[in-house]
Amino acid sequence: MNILILAAGASAQTEDDPYPVWLSEVDGQLMLERQMTALAPLDPNRYIVCVRASDNARHHVRDIVRLISPKADTVEIKRPTAGAACTALMAIDRIQADEELIILNATDQISVDFAEIVERFRASGADGGVLTFDSLHPRYSFVRIDAEGRVIEVAEKRPISRKANAGFYWLRRAGDFFDALQTMVLKDAHVNGLFYVAPALNELILRQKVIRTIGLSKDAYRPIKSPRQLSNYEHLTEGGSAT
């Protein structure tokens, strides 16, 4: 298994604080460290963190991730990409096509037992799986499922159901998903000029791949992309409501 963490977005907190949100400390741990620690029970072959070259040079991110786990390394993104899907493709040569893959965002905190989640996806016989939560806010991507619980459509920034995507992707074969990402880009299937990861699932669906979902409780998913969201998360952590 490989875990690909996307941390190359423009996410500095304020002009006075040059550190990306995912390098913020919460209860003595970096946000990125909390995420990688939560994923550790999966015992991945490697963690690959896609990070801006400027952040790597300024904040020594490669040193940080290697201290968190000796299995971790970074992929430097030297210039802005056309979206998260293009960023993910920059790691294609680091990952074997026939290995499992997990993709997630560095700024998201998901409070679940990841080993249990992955085992449920494996046991279902699915080719891929996503975590969902209840929302109608158009900042998210959304999935539509059929009567048998299979994903039949994914839409970015457009609510097509109440099942919003939490930004966690499990793929049985990494190669299938990288092929889907490339096909999506070749089709120019962008949203407002950017290529997102979620719509690539539509390419897998067209190939008769089975994608399943697991729903999260209301408080299990915490997107942290702004100082306000970080402050709220810090408050919850101090109160013992977040792990």
TrEMBL record:
Domain Nucleotidyl transferase: 29-171
UniProt keywords, alphabetically: Transferase
Gene3D superfamilies with a match to the protein in the record: Spore Coat Polysaccharide Biosynthesis Protein SpsA, Chain A (3.90.550.10)
Organism domain of life: Bacteria
Keyword Repeat: no
UniProt GO MF annotations: transferase activity
Name by which UniProt lists this protein: NTP transferase domain-containing protein
